[in-house]
Amino acid sequence: MNIENKQYDVIVIGGGPAGLSAALYASRANLSTLLVDKGVTGGQVATTFWIENYPGFPDGVGGPELIASMEAQAKRFGTEIAVIHEVLDLDANQSPLRLSTTEGNFLAKTLIIASGAEPGVGKGKLNIPGEDTLRGRGVSYCATCDGAFFRDLDVAVIGGGDSAIEEAIFLTKFAKSVTVVHRRQELRAAKVLQERAFNNEKIKFKLGRVPVEIKGETKVEGLVVEDVNSKASETLDVKGVFIFVGVQPNSGFLKDNLDLDAQGYILTDERMRTSIPGVFAAGDIRQKQLRQVVTAVSDGAIAAVEAERFIEGLN
Ligand code: NAP
Fold first, then answer.
1. What pLDDT shows up at residue 92?
2. Architecture of 6-118+247-314 per CATH?
3. CA-to-CA distance for 11 and 149, rounded, in angstroms?
4. SS3 assignment for 78-130
5. Among the four 12, 104, 128, 257, which has the fewest Cβ within 10 Å?
6. For the segment 81-108, what is each residue's pLDDT rounded down to a tens digit?
7. CB atoms near residue 70 (< 10 Å)
8. Does 126 contact ligand 1 (Cβ within 6 A)?
9. CA of 11 relative to ligand 1 center, distance in Å
10. Is residue 196 lining ligand 1, measured as CB closer than 6 Å?
11. How far, in Å, is the centroid of ligand 1 from the Cα of 164?
């Protein structure tokens, strides 16, 4: 399919729940819709083993399975999906808008940015010795991807948020023990996850500790943690270090085009409108309070309906 310079009513950037929901609503409104994504659709959900808080699935649903259903639903109404290596620039000073990518230029009347956020870059890194050199050699940012390599081994999980605790519980399927290292005495994760982790015999906690170094030459051989009060340090004998200390919004390609907050999240109003007319944002890339699949799909639907209204205004 040669889509270079082809014009669409709506281009959606990002194939996570927000982008797929936006694409579904836009296609179903008979708008020509192209969704571009870097690779496999799904964003962070694609690497989430099990989702328990998305309504309609009383027993939970696998992340990849949920995404495959969302993608099939959007395609059924006509969404085209293109894999692009990278979005390079957005020229919003012209109508139609022009999106430059490594695969060429795409034109659209409206744009919905649903590029999400990812672990393991920017704010999602610890920036301590050993983190970069041992990445892929025991240091990981994805338990679903790498957990099985740590069968019967001791591992550490860094962080106290939903991701850290959810992934720590997941890792107990494989690991001999999982030590959660968190900088405060209280976890940030949802209470239901906390309870499950506290009741899991394989999970141990090192609270009030920060990681200061990951040891090892060619693979992880230990994790040095420091007590935040006494500054005393100890080395945990672990072969894996899973880091879940937050995520970095994928907004670098926007450069100075759109209004972002200090952390790089896109500012929108409640109609998902950004600082540029015709450009909308949805999902984790937005500055917002609650980042969940259910809020992402809601954002996507609102953005698509607003895109439709914007196009009606153009006509
Ligand atoms: P998060 O909620 O921002 O949690 C990051 C954790 O890492 C916090 O506990 C934080 O400590 C700690 N941390 C941050 N920087 C650190 C550093 N330099 N050194 C040591 N620890 C550090 O990130 P997340 O867990 O990845 O979640 C991201 C978003 O996705 C959240 O909105 C979350 O609710 C959502 N999410 C939801 C689910 C679910 O509903 N099942 C699952 C996954 C993610 P402090 O607590 O002290 O700040």
1. 85
2. 3-Layer(bba) Sandwich (3.50)
3. 38
4. CCEEEECCCEEEEECCCCCEEEEECCEEEEEEEEEECCCEECCCHHHCCCCCC
5. 104
6. 998 988 888 888 888 999 999 988 999 9
7. 24
8. yes
9. 30
10. no
11. 7
Work out the number of other CB atoms within 10 angstroms of the CB of residue 226: 17
Distance CA 143, CA 163 (A): 10
Pocket test for ligand 1, best of 162, 210, 285 (most atoms within 8 A of CB): 162
Q: 122-243 sits in which CATH class?
A: alpha beta
- What would the pLDDT profile of 150-170 be if each residue is shown by its tens digit? 999 999 999 999 999 999 999
The pLDDT value given to residue 40: 78
Question: Is the four-CA dihedral 182, 186, 191, 196 of positive or negative sign?
Answer: positive
Average pLDDT over residues 134-144: 94
Residues of the chain with CATH 3.50.50.60: 6-118+247-314, 122-243
Active site residues: 142, 145-146
Task: Dump pLDDT digits (tens) for 285-308.
Answer: 999 999 999 999 999 999 999 999
